[in-house]
Design a protein that fits this description.
globular, about 35% helix, Aldehyde Dehydrogenase, Chain A, domain 1, 22 strands, 7-stranded mixed sheet, 2 domains, about 475 residues, Aldehyde Dehydrogenase, Chain A, domain 2, 14 helices, 6-stranded mixed sheet, alpha/beta
């Protein structure tokens, strides 16, 4: 076994780095090999209480630190992350699996998120309302909601926490964050960059442990005023209930999706294939905005499937540390059997495997880039988010039929359409039930644009000026 340096994993509480020191630990696995690379200490109940107490104490001074000074620290941390991007990207590849061509850019994107959001914190304007009372001033101010508990998943260990941390800190909130235990290195390094940039102790705290135990404990803590979660709809529902029971705490929920892609008769098929193959197999399909259900006009269906399957089959799959590889393993050993189950079910109902369909290798958690054609509506994969490298197609004949299929599921996160008609593009944008619509492109997740879902894909936005709202409360003052 080749030992790759990965770094020692710790808890980060009140500015202090805390190692295992007798605590329960959990192995972090390299998904390309299935071998452990580090031991992650779990927080005890006392550690969690200390983290909340630190976030509450730090909130008193951080909220009164000027937005200008908060932004300076966050922007300095962004520069530090950029300097360390090559090494942090490599560690992300080791615990998450994505190729270096994705992990290193993810560190740069995380830095960009910190930069933009830090400055947006300087623009959380209030408003003055003409008063009905003679001589009185009526004004509306925006204040930080308070200490936040954040829970982030394993698919984007940099970008998702960067969004939550930067918006919380830029608006004057403090945070206790629990990254995924499977991919903890990047959040710890974001915390280290912030500490090195001068972040006061307690403003950001990082804890690890059994997800349900940590989230129950933190959400119930009096000091926590807001919850932010990214993950599955099932877990999101549980956390929303806990947040309500713990005191009607505010919550932002970024949950699952099952993105439809409408390929109309007049689409530029080669362009659609190029854009969608990249979007589908990025991060081995473990993306909540991953294009999944391809509804293709009957007249161009076979041409699209042939081209898409050829491009998918040409992708180089292997250990993400090899710069030649374009797609890495799945992030954990739950995803491979999940893919096998969904593919077998679709095939048993009459779907055709256009490419892939099998495990990629006996070592590590690989699955081939897969395209299933003519998948019936009752197949599991047409209804449950695959969260893996599998695209499925079905045919449509009319616009109404395409929209009905696209809107059929209880999710509404990302959606995509390809057409050369401006009229069709506008009709899609109006008719589709989704938080984001990419028409002839997949550029739907940027730091300056709102990201979030409708229906059971959750509520609240991250990114853009909308993303700041989640961390602010509104106060109206009437002053005579
Ligand atoms: P899961 O639902 O158990 O976990 C999803 C994420 O939530 C993980 O990061 C996990 O650590 C966290 N989590 C689980 N239970 C929690 C709890 N009680 N409190 C706080 N956090 C908790 O399942 P999984 O096997 O890790 O992933 C399966 C499905 O989750 C995927 O198929 C996908 O639908 C969804 N998922 C979505 C995203 C996203 O970006 N929206 C990311 C990862 C997973």
């Amino acid at each position: 076994m080749q030992i790759q340096y990965y770094g020692e994993l710790k808890l980060f509480i009140d500015g202090e780095w805390i190692g295992a020191d007798g605590r329960v630990t959990e192995d972090v696995i390299n998904p390309a090999t299935g071998e452990p690379i580090a031991a992650l200490p779990h927080a005890t109940a006392e550690d969690l209480d200390r983290a909340v107490a630190a976030a509450s104490r730090a909130f008193r001074t951080w909220r009164t630190t000027t937005a200008y000074d908060r932004a300076k620290i966050i922007r300095k941390a962004a520069d530090i992350l950029r300097e360390r991007a090559a090494e942090l990207g490599r560690r992300m590849t080791l615990d998450q699996g994505k190729p270096l061509s994705e992990s290193i850019p993810e560190i740069h994107i995380s830095a960009d998120i910190l930069d933009w959001t830090a400055d947006e914190g300087r623009r959380t304007y209030g408003r003055v309302i003409p008063s009905r009372l003679p001589g009185a001033r009526w004004f509306v101010t925006r204040e930080p909601v308070g200490p936040v508990a954040g829970f982030t998943p394993w698919n984007f260990p940099g970008v998702i926490p960067a969004r939550k941390i930067s918006a919380a800190l830029a608006t004057g909130c403090t945070m206790v964050i629990k990254p995924s235990e499977e991919t903890p290195s990047t959040v710890l390094e974001i915390a280290r960059a912030l500490q090195d940039a001068g972040l006061p102790n307690g403003v950001l705290n990082v804890v690890h442990g059994k997800p349900a135990e940590v989230s129950e404990h933190l959400i119930a803590s009096d000091g926590i005023r807001k919850i932010t979660f990214t993950g599955s709809t099932n877990v999101g529902k549980q956390l929303a209930v806990l947040a309500a029971q713990a005191g009607v705490k505010r919550a932002t929920m970024e949950l699952g999706g099952h993105a439809p892609v409408l390929i109309f008769e007049d689409a530029d098929i080669d362009h659609a294939i190029r854009v969608m193959v990249h979007a589908k197999y990025r991060n081995a399909g473990q993306v909540c905005i991953s294009p999944t259900r391809f509804y293709v006009h009957d007249s161009v269906h076979d041409k699209f499937v042939d081209g898409f399957a050829k491009a998918a089959a040409a992708l180089k799959v292997g250990d993400g540390l090899d710069p030649e590889n374009q797609m890495g393993p799945l992030a954990n050993n739950r995803r491979v059997p999940a893919m096998e189950r969904m593919v077998a079910d679709a095939v048993s109902r009459g779907a055709r495997i256009a490419t892939g369909g099998e495990r990629g290798s006996n070592r590590g958690y690989f699955f081939q880039p897969t395209v299933l054609a003519d998948v019936p509506q009752d197949a599991i994969i047409m209804n449950e988010e695959p969260f893996g490298p599998v695209a499925v197609t079905a045919r449509f004949s009319t616009f109404e039929e395409a929209i009905e299929q696209a809107n059929r599921l209880p999710y509404g996160l990302a959606s995509y359409a390809f057409t050369q008609s401006a009229k069709t593009a506008t009709m899609v944008s109006d008719a589709i039930e989704a938080g984001m619509v990419g028409i002839n492109n997949n550029a739907i997740s940027m730091t300056e644009t709102p990201f979030g879902g409708v229906k059971q894909s959750g509520y609240g936005s991250e990114g853009g000026s909308e993303g700041m709202e989640a961390y602010l409360v509104t106060k109206f003052t009437s002053q005579s």
